[in-house]
């Protein structure tokens, strides 16, 4: 039966040809290089593979998008008040971070960026906000304390505009927008005292404890005194229920002074004046104190509430939403 034998032979040839050609369409997993990841491996470390391929698998963008460095394609930088630094790829220049901005320690930009000229990246020197708590929570907060750019030279500088810059970094930043700005020398500008926070007028009831605050900037440092109009005496004088305290701060070359009245009575009502002076001149600011008896205070507060109710109320169109 030659016809049947021929068909059997043809089938064997087709089967042999098909079995030979199909595997060439698939990857040869038997010849993988030692140590190379297997596509069939269920424990494949995709993060490591992504990092090896230049994807930045560690969560930072230091290597993301970094290919061949072509300086001609770098974006133009403008308005960089703290100078220029290399970007995360180490190829193009970008604006450096200013004083007080978050930063990356070291010499490589990873997330926040690098500090500019004359600045270093360190823990924020400003006092931490808030209080209370304690224990492990506070320790964790300290460990996660954000690092910011801090000026390496903290000596104040006097500008040709008559303003005192608390460090040379602040001066450089101002000079960027004022090309004509020059320094008159190291140290603050000599100036007549400036009252930065004047005392505020207030009304309260008898027996209350009241405080007036006056913050002054001056170089040379100012002497601050308190007086009450109608009395030719520097407070507290010999009055046992009035006290005055002064101390430096909150900033350099500033002085804060408090006038405190304990157990105030109607006779303490009047105008109080904070006077600051140095060898260049003097300046003053005043505030009015009203001490009312119980019935007077109730009437006063009722009138204030009535006045507030008569004020026009804001409509929905007057409100800003953010």
Automatic annotation (TrEMBL):
Q: What is the lineage of its organism?
A: Eukaryota, Metazoa, Chordata, Craniata, Vertebrata
State the species of origin. Channa striata
This protein's name: Kazal-type serine peptidase inhibitor domain 3
Q: Which Pfam families match?
A: Ig_3 (PF13927), IGFBP (PF00219), Kazal_2 (PF07648)
Q: Which GO terms describe its molecular function?
A: insulin-like growth factor binding
Q: Write out the GO biological process terms.
A: regulation of cell growth; regulation of signal transduction
What PANTHER family does the record tag this protein with? INSULIN-LIKE GROWTH FACTOR BINDING PROTEIN-RELATED (PTHR14186), KAZAL-TYPE SERINE PEPTIDASE INHIBITOR DOMAIN 3 (PTHR14186:SF25)
- Domain (IGFBP N-terminal) spans 62-152
Identify the residues that the record assigns to the Ig-like domain, covering every copy: 193-290
- Please tell me whether the keyword Secreted is annotated for this protein: yes
Signal sequence span is 1-21
Q: What is its main location?
A: secreted
* Residue ranges of every copy of the Kazal-like domain listed in the record: 143-191
GO-annotated cellular components: extracellular space
Q: Where in the cell is it found?
A: Secreted
- Taxonomy, superkingdom: Eukaryota
**InterPro entries, per database record:** Growth_fac_rcpt_cys_sf, Ig-like_dom, Ig-like_dom_sf, Ig-like_fold, Ig_sub, Ig_sub2, IGFBP-like, IGFBP_rP_mac25
Alphabetical keyword list: Disulfide bond, Immunoglobulin domain, Secreted, Signal
Q: Does the keyword Secreted apply?
A: yes
